[in-house]
């Protein structure tokens, strides 16, 4: 039918075939390389028609039924149908299709039931979006970290969207917070920029980089993860306090001409948009890996470090290099972020 009718087969659908998208490529690869698994991996197709007649081939006990469909349209499954249709032109495509099974629902909806027909189309194409992050929870290593944080520190590790954070008295760590913290304590500027620009890029494939370097199962332990999170939280607390202080200073600036409002505005802009890069600047390479060093010892050393001078140097360097640049896109530019870091003195937190 798709070969004969083309896009007219999707006349009542929200979309026609989108061509070579990432998802459609996955559909094609499954069909070609694992046709026997297509039934399990694909959601199938929903087809509506205002009239259907059926004829049993070979009598009442026959397995095959001939359907005659009038005024029909696919309302969900345009990508599946168009992608499979294109396989007919590929080498091995016909053979794969002959071994493939796909669920198809054929719904008869009378012509005067237009409102119901519209609702079928709408709700078959409505779902809560599945983000890249949601697939990370399938990684067994994330489950291992979750059990370890709960067992060793009574910390709830939230790795799935919609999970209940539970009792407010129970400490929690989210997957996003863990990722940002590990990136800040890592050595990759690229990852630090991605954490600000598009963090989902760090989770896109749990079987390749950069995910495997961030969540390095060969050495990442629940203790190391907890240390990274606490270190990054210390940076975030400092920036929040700094911004609150400047907010208060702004309120009284009109009454005291000696206060430099420009300094406050510059620091606020950098604290808001450059928080990920500043965390990376301060924490990059920090030793979170010593298992003999307890979390309380680690946190104690963090308290002894004053971040005021590093932050002021950071702000000054940002404005010296890129004072006229808008700060939001600035900290999403890998080259510019690397230039900022190269102009800064190295920092030693004294945590080893």
UniProtKB/TrEMBL annotation:
Pfam families with a match to the protein in the record: AIPR
Top-level taxon in the UniProt lineage: Bacteria
Segments forming domain Abortive phage infection protein C-terminal: 10-296
InterPro entries: AIPR_C
Protein name: Abortive phage infection protein C-terminal domain-containing protein
Source organism (scientific name): Kocuria tytonicola
């Amino acid at each position: 039918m798709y070969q004969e009718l083309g896009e007219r087969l999707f006349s009542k659908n929200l979309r026609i075939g989108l061509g070579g998208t990432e998802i459609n490529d996955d559909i094609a690869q499954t069909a070609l390389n694992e046709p026997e698994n297509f039934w399990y991996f694909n959601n199938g197709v929903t087809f509506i028609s205002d009239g259907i007649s059926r004829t049993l081939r070979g009598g009442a006990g026959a397995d095959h039924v001939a359907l005659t469909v009038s005024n029909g349209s696919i309302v969900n499954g345009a990508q599946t149908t168009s992608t499979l249709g294109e396989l007919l032109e590929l080498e091995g495509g016909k053979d794969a299709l002959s071994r493939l099974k796909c669920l198809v629902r054929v719904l008869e909806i009378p012509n005067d039931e237009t409102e119901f027909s519209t609702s079928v189309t709408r709700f078959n194409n409505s779902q809560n979006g599945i983000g890249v992050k949601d697939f990370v929870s399938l990684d067994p290593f994330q489950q291992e970290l979750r059990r370890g944080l709960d067992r060793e520190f009574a910390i709830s590790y939230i790795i799935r969207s919609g999970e209940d954070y539970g009792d407010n008295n129970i400490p929690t760590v989210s997957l996003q917070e863990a990722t940002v913290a590990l990136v800040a304590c890592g050595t990759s500027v690229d990852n630090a920029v991605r954490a600000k620009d598009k963090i989902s890029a760090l989770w896109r494939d749990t079987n390749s980089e950069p995910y495997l370097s961030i969540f390095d199962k060969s050495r990442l332990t629940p203790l190391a993860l907890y240390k990274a999170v606490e270190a990054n939280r210390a940076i975030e607390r400092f920036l929040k306090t700094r911004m609150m202080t400047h907010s208060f200073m702004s309120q009284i600036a009109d009454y005291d001409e000696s206060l430099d409002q420009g300094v406050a505005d510059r620091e606020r802009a950098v604290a808001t948009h450059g928080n990920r890069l500043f965390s990376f600047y301060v924490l990059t390479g920090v030793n979170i890996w010593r298992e003999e060093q307890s979390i309380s010892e680690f946190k104690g050393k963090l308290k002894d470090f004053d971040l005021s001078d590093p932050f002021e140097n950071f702000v000054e360097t940002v404005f010296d290099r890129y004072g006229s640049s808008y700060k939001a896109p600035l900290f999403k530019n890998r080259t510019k972020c690397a230039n900022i870091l190269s102009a800064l003195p190295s920092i030693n937190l004294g945590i080893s």
